[in-house]
Amino acid sequence: MKRIALAEDDVLLREGMATLLESAGYDVVCRAGDAAELLDFLRGAEPEMIVVDIRMPPTCTTEGLDAARAIREDHPKAGILVLSAHVEVDQAMELLATGRRIGYLLKQRVASVDGFIEAIERVRGGDSVVDPVLVSELFAARRREDPLALLSPREREVLALMAEGRSNAGIAHRLWISEGTVEKHVRSIMARLRLPDTGDDHRRVLAVIAFLESR
């Protein structure tokens, strides 16, 4: 069974998420009320996934984000999904820059059961997931010296979906175009952003970071 740990100080939300995850086939091995309790549990456990709220006691500032950093260092193979009640751009960028198996989701998404479980599964499978509201906010707040200015509108759409963690096949399905067309757009994006010719996965991460920094 898929093992998952939860850290959320709102008891009702925590228990609600646990119920949803158990019904989806997960074994909820930890239901922590704060980051310290979560980290204490993880000293002797290796769950596949961790869901953690950014703001938790005692100060309700960045306890969850700090825990996510520590978890990424101590449990590099675990997927981490961070929840936030508000769009916090700087914190999201810092978190997503740590690599794959990472996600940032607004708490309101939990109400969409299918969307929440899909995000969990994608992060667990190795993707990065970015809440669409955050993607929209980043687009709206781009600086005039936007490094993405050379991209076409369609290439921007493709890059935005890449930032949400979508595969080429997923992007093709969303935009109603062929996977081959998506691949051409991705190659064009890499060329226009002048990204180094490294592994495809690494270049995709660099492209997403360029997108997230363009605000």
TrEMBL record:
Keyword Disulfide bond: no
GO biological process, one term: regulation of DNA-templated transcription
EC number: 2.7.11.1
SMART domains per record: HTH_LUXR (SM00421), REC (SM00448)
CDD domains registered for this protein in UniProt: LuxR_C_like, REC_NarL-like
SUPFAM superfamilies per UniProt: C-terminal effector domain of the bipartite response regulators (SSF46894), CheY-like (SSF52172)
Protein name: Serine/threonine-protein kinase PknK
Source organism: Sphaerisporangium siamense
